[in-house]
Amino acid sequence: xxxxxxxPAADGPAAEQAQAGKTTAAKKPPARKAPAKKAAxxxxxxxxxxPAKKTAAAKKAAPAKKAAPARKPESRVAxxxxxxxxxxxxxxxxxxxxxxxxFTNPFELLVATVLSAQTTDLRVNQTTPRLFAxxxxxxxxxxxxxxxxxxxxxxxxxxxxxxxxxxGLSTALRDRFGGEVPGRLEDLVTLxxxxxxxxxxxxxxxxxxxxxxxxxxxxxxxxxxxxTTAQDAEKVEADVAEIFPKSExxxxxxxxxxxxxxxxxxxxxxxGACPIAPLCPSYGEGETDPEKARKLLKYELGxxxxxxxxxxxxxxxxPAPPLAAP
Length: 326
Known about the structure:
Layout: H1 13-27, H2 52-61, H3 76-93, H4 106-115, H5 121-134, H6 138-143, H7 146-153, H8 159-176, H9 185-188, H10 196-206, H11 216-224, H12 233-241, H13 249-262, H14 290-294
Helix pairs in contact: 4-10, 7-8, 11-13
């Protein structure tokens, strides 16, 4: 397309005025647009999005969640009173509390306790009948070929290490203690595979010597109850020993372990079905709905068999089944 030739410029005042008019018109600013609404705050808001200021205001308007009331610091005296009340409540809940290993003499209890490491008392109880039929005395167990002993205790796991400990402690009992289990902690802890926990189990239940048994259940509940903050078993034992009279140590251990196995589980405690919940500073760590919590109960509280094949006469639950034939 060809360009249109420009018109010649006009001369004179009239031309100057016309030219001035054109210049003024060119410089005249464009008409202003109507100001945006206040809610938009002078900025365009993309469709479907809420302005930032409005979002902030909405957040402020939303009701804040109520924080859990801070628990008042507990004095030492108050903690001890609460701890002893927990023990009394547990005694009423578990009047039949007992060691959950089957045994008929100190040697059987010692062996069963060593075998219980890293496994359940139920599996130990299902394993020991064949073991004690083959090795009823320390002399028998010291003389058995390691491979045969390993096969007898295989169901309990870690059978090679456990077999080594059992042969070692049986040999020590035969050679150093006349084939008898000693009744002193200082002597028991010198036996292969025997620590303070095992020694306290044997002393408390075979010799009537008070002792606190700190296994995983006892340590967990002692911390949840606020009796200690320690993780080390010996420190837990020392802390708890200062709270309770010595005469209570053995039965306290049974009651706390019973409660840990039946109600106050490691991963999901049944808080809503726990009779001592009002005394527990850790209430709420687990299931608080009563109906859901009842479904978490175990052993006799949950209508299931216990851990002992031969439980005491006053045990209200069912005996455990024997080990199934391979």
